[in-house]
Amino acid sequence: MAKKPPPPDEAHAPGEDDDAALFRAAIGPVRELPPVEARPARPRPRPGTRMAELGDADARDEFLRLLDEAPVEAGDTLRHRRDQVSARVLKRLAQGEYAVQDEIDLHHATAAAAATLLRRFLRDARDAGARCVRVIHGKGLNSEGVPVLKNLCDRLLRQRADVLAFHSAPPAQGGTGAVLVLLRSR
């Protein structure tokens, strides 16, 4: 189909070149191309786990930050609480006022095995509805240098979102060789 050039624009004064008209005159008749089917839409990307990745990244950063801190010594008291936990709750935990519903003894475990056992124990205890558990890590008197299991427990418990607070047990429940852990409810 040949299109006729449009009539000259009345806004132009006679003698002015109309670029569009000149272009159409120069290329001559044109034919319309058949319509092209639209490309199929790209598949939407799978939803990511951005928040989980951020949580893992934050936990990793916290862990690395804790590695830079001075390690816990054999006689040191472990204590930590989340912002939403009052100081009064931590004090009651330190005095052993919460009933211990389950416990694990990590004595003589390697660091890797202890980490796996502790993670599994905390998950199972929380799933069972336990609110307060005791982790026996020992005082580290047989460790060379710093108490390995005690430091591992300190760092691992600080990372976990399901741990609200923890404190070294009172002397009758293991003293600085054990830690009482307050867990978030399911």
From TrEMBL:
It comes from the Bacteria. Residues 104-184 form the Smr domain. Residues 27-52 are annotated as: Disordered. SUPFAM superfamilies: SMR domain-like. Transmembrane segments: none annotated. InterPro entries: Smr_dom, Smr_dom_sf. GO terms for molecular function: DNA endonuclease activity. Gene3D superfamilies: 3.30.1370.110. This is SMR domain protein.
